[in-house]
Amino acid sequence: MASEGADVERDDEKKSADDGATGSGDAVAAAEAARPAGGESVRVDSWIWSVRLVKTRSMGATACRGGHVRVNGERVKPAYAVRVGDEVRLRHGGRERIVVVKRVIRKRVGPPVAAECYVDNSPPPPPRESVAPAGVRDRGAGRPTKRDRRELERLRGLGGPEAP
Q1: pLDDT (tens digit, 9 = 90+) per residue, 110-129?
Q2: Residues 6+ apart with CB under 8 A from 82
Q3: Pairing of strands 95-101, 118-120
Q4: What are phi and psi of 40, to 5 degrees?
Q5: What is the CA radius of gyration of the chain?
Q6: pTM over 0.85
């Protein structure tokens, strides 16, 4: 009788494992492996590092301490526990990232798996400024004259009053 119960449990485990394999196999397996053990929570600094929003966990902690991380509109400390459905706002690298937590993970995973752990609601990044080349001179042309230098400054938008 005891062995029948064990067989039923094993069959249930096989079914749940088969269900996960129908998606993007390795990605799901990696995300499941990175998932915290039952009831364990994940710190916000660790989570934003795990899903590759910041380069290092210490950068995530520094961003939290500096007030650059908000969860559901409130500034949080690095040890704040993240849950599924939380909105995380991170100001980093000159732009604001707005993500909604889909999956909580504690280990850093590859970029394709990390992208499945959140929904990105961030505004598009600002367009890069198209800067004209800074007056490339021919090799061996020597030092620029005063007139050449003034022309370069005028092209760059630098310099003082316009000379006639």
Answers
A1: 999 999 999 999 998 877 76
A2: 41, 42, 43, 44, 47, 71, 88, 101, 104
A3: antiparallel
A4: -80, 140
A5: 26
A6: no
Nearest to 112 by CA among 52, 54, 33: 52
- The residue with tokens 């005891």 is 2
**Residue from 72, 74, 76, 44 nearest 60 by CA:** 44
Beta-bridge partner residues of 80: none
Paired tokens of 66: 């500096």
Parallel, antiparallel or unpaired: strands 87-92 and 95-101: antiparallel
Query: Is pLDDT at 13 greater than 60 in this prediction?
Result: no
pLDDT tens, position by position, 39-98: 678 999 999 999 999 999 999 999 999 999 999 999 999 999 999 999 999 998 888 999
What are 120's strand-pairing partners? 99
